[in-house]
Amino acid sequence: MNSSSPKRLYFGTDGVRGPYGGATMNETFAWRLGAAAGWWLKAATGSAGRVVIGRDTRASGASLAQAVADGLAYAGGEVFSLDVLPTPAVALAVRKQQAALGVVITASHNPAADNGIKFFGPGGMKLTDAEEALIEQLMPAARMSPTVTPRPKLDGIADYLASAGKLLPAQLTGWKIVLDAANGAAAQTSSAALRKAGADLLCIGAEPDGTNINAGVGSEHPEKMCAAVKAHGARLGIAHDGDGDRCVLCDEAGSVLDGDELLTILALHALKHGRLASKTLVVTVQSNLGVDAAVTAAGGRVCRTPVGDRYVIERMLAEGANLGGESSGHVICSDVSPTGDGLVAALKVIGVMLATGQPLSVLRRALRKFPQQSLALQVKDKKPLESLPTLPAAIRAVEARLGTQGRVLVRYSGTEPKLRLLVEGPTGAIVQQAMDQLAAAARADLEVV
Would strands 280-284 and 323-325 be described as parallel, antiparallel, or unpaired? Predict the structure, then answer.
């Protein structure tokens, strides 16, 4: 979570992730990681216990899931398959099945060529940095066994849809909604939930073939959703990422709302009705300063964490908060789900629309964003930022100019070989000038590819 966190070689901000077939995302690695996770469980609890495994729609998912299952079984785990299922549904299944561990084979919003592995502990909570570090320490002892373990199947869909259905009675008759499921794990579940609520649904990104996940669709590419909303006169559009834990919306005019706007809408509505626990919203350092201004003006407070939804969840627990998330579209409603859930986020916002009678184009006005610019530079090596000759001085110079009227965030991605730059300030021109200075410094210090 910070510089004092345990050093991890493989885990990033959201599990282990990389190109399938590479050094850290292949069946041998997956087996070793599974075995290490089983040994860690046994050391921590006395038993490797019951484990549930789900995956998104990538072609590589089935064989990686089998490899993780084989490793876990080798370590003594009792492994069950949830097959294709959104990440939040796997977290819920951990709770429902009283499992010791949940595993999701997914690379979330990444292209189909990538894949990843992430874990949920008891109660559906993501593992801590320290727990992931302990698992990594056990990996060198894992030597792959050829034994293939049968994985009895469990139905995680019914429980997930029943949980989501409690949020929204069948009140959406006459509502035309565009749903973009990114050709991913939420293609079946989100459409089923919305249709059960009575919505007239137009689906895109709903034909996964193993290679088309996130390909020009979904929360990273909402253009088709926005165009469909305008073309068909829909009330709103909903877009997920490949594993269904993110959500971005677009209003009736076809304009995208990001996670900051969704969180502000939900926080202000909850504050007004006394349902925002501890009067606190938890966001990351990536969120716009306008979120703080809106929530504070309404009598609430905002806490910030490092980037990563599990850090948000940890802080929510510490603060007694029930709402948090990221500008990327991870929204955590902990009274419903133990992790980010794209379907829950969408249903919660629809609930505000129903309660207020206002369209998204009006509700979104609650957030007045500070001018902001972000840039992601793909780099060959993630050299320690403090060791670079030019960039640290450029950051200090920009921060001195902005003072209290803006901020700078420079960090490496936890899941990709990228340096991420973010600048907020009082005017677009000032932000642009600052970004140009930081980008030039970064290019001077790092090999940008």
Answer: parallel
Rounded-to-integer distance, Cα 331 and Cα 92, Å: 15
pLDDT digits (tens), the chain, 449 positions: 333 456 788 998 889 999 999 998 999 999 999 999 999 999 998 888 899 999 999 999 999 999 999 999 999 999 999 999 999 999 999 999 999 999 999 999 999 999 999 999 988 999 999 999 999 999 999 988 888 888 899 999 999 999 999 998 778 999 999 999 999 999 999 999 999 999 999 999 999 999 999 999 999 999 999 999 999 999 999 999 999 999 999 999 999 999 999 999 999 999 999 999 999 999 998 899 899 989 999 999 999 999 888 899 999 999 999 999 999 999 999 999 989 999 999 999 999 999 999 999 999 999 999 999 999 999 999 999 999 999 999 999 999 999 888 899 999 987 789 999 999 998 999 999 999 999 999 999 999 99
Nearest Cα residue to 54 out of 242, 217, 221, 195: 242
Residue whose structure tokens are 């590819």 = 449
Q: What is the DSSP string of 194-224?
A: HHHTT-EEEEES----SS-TTSS-STT-THH
**What is the helix, strand, coil percentage profile of the chain, to 5?**
40, 20, 40
Select which of 60, 108, 219, 328 is catalytic.
108
Q: Report which secondary-structure segment, H or E, holds 281.
A: strand 280-284
Is residue 334 among the annotated active site residues?
A: no
Sign of CA pseudo-dihedral 13, 15, 20, 22: positive
Ordered by where they begin, the domains of the chain are: 16-156 (3.40.120.10), 175-255 (3.40.120.10), 259-346 (3.40.120.10), 372-445 (3.30.310.50)
Dihedral angle at the C-alpha atoms of 152, 139, 88, 334, nearest 10 degrees?
130
Which residue from 112, 88, 272 is spatially nearest to 189, judged by alpha carbons?
A: 88
What is the reported pTM? 0.88
H or E element that contains 355: helix 342-356
HSE toward the beta carbon, residue 336, CA cutoff 13 A: 25
Q: Cβ of 313: how many Cβ atoms within 10 Å?
A: 23
Specify the amino acid at residue 233.
Answer: G
Q: Which pair of structure tokens corresponds to residue 316?
A: 């929510």
